[in-house]
Design goal:
The complex is a heterodimer of chains A (108) and B (789).
Chain A lengths: L2 H5 L2 H18 L5 H12 L4 H25 L3 H5 L3 H18 L6
Helix pairs in contact in A: 2-3, 2-4, 3-4, 3-6, 4-6
Chain B lengths: L1 H21 L4 H8 L8 H4 L5 E4 L4 E5 L6 E5 L2 H28 L3 H4 L4 H10 L1 H12 L3 H19 L4 H6 L8 H16 L3 H12 L1 H7 L32 H7 L9 E7 L10 E9 L7 E6 L4 E6 L8 E4 L2 E7 L5 E5 L2 E2 L5 E4 L2 E4 L1 E7 L7 E8 L2 E6 L2 E7 L7 H9 L4 H9 L6 E7 L4 E5 L6 E3 L2 E3 L4 E3 L30 E3 L3 E4 L20 H15 L6 H8 L11 H8 L4 H10 L10 H24 L10 H5 L13 H19 L4 H4 L31 E2 L4 E3 L2 E4 L5 E4 L17 H5 L4 E3 L9 E5 L3
Parallel strand pairs in B: 1-30, 3-6, 10-22
Antiparallel strand pairs in B: 2-3, 2-30, 4-5, 4-24, 5-26, 5-27, 6-7, 7-8, 8-9, 9-18, 10-17, 11-12, 12-13, 14-15, 15-16, 16-17, 18-19, 19-23, 20-21, 25-26, 27-28, 28-29
Helix pairs in contact in B: 4-8, 4-10, 7-10, 11-12, 14-15, 18-19, 18-22, 19-20, 20-22
Classes of the chains: A mainly alpha (108), B alpha+beta (789).
């Protein structure tokens, strides 16, 4: 089965996204590069570059949501949501690098 | 094919470029600080203090009370106890510890940048760090010194084990290890904040600008009131001043220095009442020190459960022992004495780079060294730091002055405070007080045996000129050796038995019936010159009025009555002013005139009062309206305006009204006040007088405190100066051996993500209290286990 035909399989789309999110969140415990790698994994499983980019962006958004869950579990979410610029910069990082990772779909 | 390759190359370049940019400055810095999960700024938001920690000093346990996060620290060994205390201070206030020592060492610019270069230059010229070092050298090797070392080790274990506070992430740096000398530096910091006054220099500037007569009128040596702390002496009126030597100081130097002196509003209330007048027969100690209000608070509340004593109360983060509080035998509190423990010297000098100064007939080289101030994001600065036999030589824009300050030598205050913690009664406390070298404070104490005590702490210099004792209100001729303190060794060990007021000649009373201290004049008839820099007496007068009237009524003084005194908002500035103000504005603003006249009967600065709002804003405008024109013309800014007491008691026909009637000035001031009220949309005093003025040093919304309307002014017993802001930084009412209460303006934890960051603030704003000490939590939050040394 060729890569192209595999990418036509909807299960791969979802699977790549799921794996990408998990990888992003796990690797992001060590470095922000995790968002890029997760976004790339999610993107590579998609059938087009446009969908790859969207999957990367979604990976970043879900990773950010995961970070908010962590903050909530520590009782810090309310304060974190009031941090203004600090929060905005933080939110941009996973979304930006997840999306950049998704761009990798345009290379392979 | 080519276009496909080009497209792929372009996409690869964008993706790869993004990653590469993340590895390079400045993007790398943002990512390291702010990235989810790993960003340094978030580390403390998601990390909880370790529940088990290895201690080289042995087992200890920390239990936080469930409601307000106050730690009870217990151990069977004192060193283990203070290791754990250091760890707790690190866990709850690490950034505050580091910020304070950076300020005192002159290292702020290294992390903050250009904005703090002036502060760093001042602190390095004063060389507080060397004074702390010599203080540590004197303490090292003693039992107290060993405990300070254990404490420092605890702070450092916390730095190593725990996530750093958010502020470190925002500023992108890591703290250096904490040292015992840093703890000594905290003593220097609070001592400077309470006694570091450039009043002598400021008055010299004012004299040059306004003339000696104006200075005597606007800045009198003694304020005309009859409520000193000790009311049994009648010394009559003193000489107005001894400012006749008339040495000048360069205004640029004085202006620069005024940024670093004790801020206005620093003061405190305390009183002790013997058991003869209380309901239970046990004495009562009340204390509320008025320091700068900030987020987090200057104080940290803790309970130290040592093998043979239990001390509870507040300390300055960085100091292991309880500074104000109680143990099982007694309770103690402090207010600032305001004693004059700083002097200034002028010298004849010569030479260029290797300058010399004349001293007692010889030319003496300055002790000098080049000091570099690192500046984040800017060019480092290098200054030449000079010292004379008297202490640091402060220079600015071609002007200079030598300084002696009692804090610039080895001091024994840390030992004294430790001895208060483990004291078992009056004798122990008196012995400890004799070694309390700095700062000068009014100590009030009571014990479970019924003893009471008032005593002045701190070393007070005796100055002589031609063998005659003089006041420290002038700039001395340093070249002639005038006004020196015999035995004083700046940055060395001082012989306190020589040129300083002997302990038994300092003001003090053993077993007084009751004493009230609020930074007012200590006594009308001191054995030695103490100060001319006392606070306005409003609070002192009021506290004595409340105590006198209660005792005359023959009702007992109860803890509840004392708490109501803490909540007293009578503003004495209204006396003699509110009525004339009502008359002055009766035609233009009849409703305000009626409201102010009616309100003046109680003159309570309460949050729901419109009249209190109008009066508070009016008073500052009245001061400005009276003095601005002549002071502006003399190039004196509003920091030179006279104190409130002087403004209030200006003769209605005073020449300071500049050809206008006092009523005219009042009308103009009131119009300005009304303009502010309209512009800001204030309706009542609480709209203006709220806790939003209490901010974090970064002044970020999520780090600042929320806004709760509150009562009080800078002149009331319930003390809150919203314009600075300063006020009651800790309130406590103690009955030794019985239940006590307390409150902090904010919260005990410096972590903005903690539930205890500001959980006491609203209660404080409402002058409510919590139990003191708190009940320790059921579970152990941090267990310290024996580890390797």
């Amino acid at each position: 089965m060729s890569v192209a035909s595999a990418r036509a399989d909807e299960r791969l789309w979802v699977g790549a996204l799921a794996v990408g999110v998990v990888v992003a969140i796990v690797l992001a415990q060590f470095s922000w590069v995790g968002f890029f790698v997760g976004g790339a994994i999610a993107g590579l499983g998609q059938r087009s570059i446009r969908r790859g980019v969207a999957a990367g962006l979604l990976t970043g958004v879900v990773s950010l949501a995961g970070f908010f869950v962590l903050l909530a579990s520590a009782g810090s979410l309310d304060t974190a949501l009031g941090t203004g610029q600090l929060l905005y910069v933080t939110a941009v990082i996973p979304v930006l690098y997840g999306t950049l990772g998704g761009l990798v779909r345009g290379v392979f | 094919m080519d276009s496909e390759l080009t497209r792929r190359g372009l996409v690869a370049a964008i993706a790869g470029g993004g990653v590469a940019a993340g590895a390079m400055s400045p993007v790398a810095g943002y990512l390291q600080r702010f990235a989810p999960f790993t960003g340094d700024a978030w580390a403390d938001a998601t990390d909880r203090t370790n529940s088990t920690v290895e201690s080289p000093y042995g087992a200890a346990a920390v239990r936080y009370d469930d409601e307000y996060g106050v730690p009870t620290i217990s151990a069977d060994d004192e060193s283990a106890l203070y290791f754990a205390t250091g760890y707790v201070h690190g866990a709850n206030r690490l950034f505050q510890l580091d910020l304070q020592r950076r300020q005192m060492r002159g290292q702020l610019s290294e992390v903050v940048g250009e904005a703090t270069v002036g502060s760093d230059e001042f602190h390095r010229r004063m060389d507080f760090a060397s004074a702390a070092e010599v203080t540590w050298q004197q303490l090292e090797g003693s039992h107290t010194g060993d405990l300070v070392e254990a404490y420092a080790d605890g702070v450092n274990a916390c730095i190593e084990n725990e996530a750093l506070p958010t502020e470190f992430g925002l500023l992108d740096y890591e703290p250096r290890p904490w040292t015992p000398a840093d703890t000594m530096l905290m003593e220097k910091q609070i001592a400077w904040q309470l006694t570091g006054s450039f009043r002598t220099l400021n008055l010299a500037v004012a004299r040059d600008a306004l003339g000696a007569d104006a200075v005597d009128e606007l800045y009198p040596y003694r304020l005309n009131h009859d409520s000193p702390i000790l009311r049994d002496a009648d010394g009559g009126l003193p000489n107005q001043s001894q400012r006749t030597s008339a040495r000048s100081v360069g205004k640029p130097l004085a202006d620069w220095l005024s940024d670093f002196e004790s801020p206005p509003g620093i003061g405190s209330n305390s009183w002790v009442v013997s058991g003869d007048y209380t309901e239970s027969g046990t004495p009562i100690v009340a204390n509320d020190p008025h320091l700068s209000l900030m987020a987090p608070p200057v104080w940290f509340e803790q309970v130290l459960d040592a093998p043979d004593y239990t001390a509870r109360g507040v300390t300055f983060p960085g100091v292991p022992f309880v500074v104000i509080g109680e143990n099982d035998h007694g309770a103690w509190g402090f207010t600032n004495t305001g004693a004059d423990v700083i002097d200034f010297y002028d010298y004849e000098t010569r030479g260029g780079a290797d300058r010399e100064y004349a001293y007692e007939g010889d030319w003496v080289p300055f002790e000098q060294e080049r000091v570099t101030i690192p500046v984040a994001g800017g060019d480092d600065r290098t200054i030449v730091r000079r010292k004379t036999v008297h202490g640091p030589y402060l220079e600015r824009d071609g002007h200079a002055v030598g300084v002696s300050w009692t804090g610039l030598t080895a001091t024994r205050t840390t030992e004294a405070v430790y001895d208060y913690n483990r004291s078992t009664g009056l004798d122990d406390v008196l012995a400890a007080t004799e070694r309390f070298d700095e700062p000068t404070q009014n100590l009030v104490y009571a014990d479970a045996d019924g003893n009471t005590l008032y005593y002045v702490t701190g070393q007070i210099p005796i100055r002589t000129v031609d063998g005659e004792e003089v006041r420290g209100t002038r700039i001395f001729d340093g070249s002639a050796g005038e006004g020196e303190w015999d035995g004083f060794e700046p940055y060395g060990e001082t012989d306190w038995s020589r040129g300083f007021v002997p302990f038994d000649e300092k003001p003090g009373v053993v077993n007084p019936e009751y004493v009230a201290t609020a930074n007012q004049r200590i006594t009308d008839d001191p054995e030695h010159y103490l100060s001319e820099g006392y606070s306005d007496p409003y609070r002192g007068i009021r506290i004595y009025e409340l105590l006198d009237s209660r005792i005359e009524s023959e009702k007992p003084i109860t803890p509840e009555y004392v708490q109501s005194m803490h909540d007293d908002t009578y503003d004495g500035r209204t006396e003699g002013l509110a009525e004339p103000l009502g008359d002055a504005i009766a035609d233009d603003h009849p409703e305000y005139a009626t409201a102010i006249r009616k309100w003046a009967g109680s003159a309570e600065m309460n949050r729901d009062s419109e009249a209190a709002l109008a009066f508070a804003l009016f008073f500052d405008e009245y001061k400005r309206e009276t003095f601005a024109e002549r002071f502006d013309a003399a190039d004196l800014d509003d920091s030179y305006y006279p104190r409130d007491w002087v403004v209030q008691h200006l003769d209605p026909e005073s020449e300071w009204f500049e050809g206008r009637s006092r009523a005219d000035v009042m009308r103009a001031a009131f119009e300005s006040a009304l303009e502010t009220i309209r512009e800001e949309g204030y309706e009542t005093y609480g709209d203006y007088n709220d806790t939003s003025a209490i901010t974090h040093p970064f002044d970020q919304e999520f780090l600042n405190y929320p806004a709760y309307p509150t009562d009080g002014s800078r002149a009331t017993v319930n003390n809150y100066a919203v314009e600075r802001p300063t006020g009651s930084s800790w309130r406590m009412v103690c009955q030794p051996g019985e239940d006590s209460v307390c409150m902090l303006p904010g919260g005990n934890d410096g972590n903005p993500f903690s539930e205890h960051y500001s959980d006491q603030l609203e209660l404080w704003a409402n002058t409510e209290y919590k139990p003191f000490p708190p009940a320790p939590g059921e579970s152990v939050a941090i267990r310290f286990e024996e580890g390797e040394r």
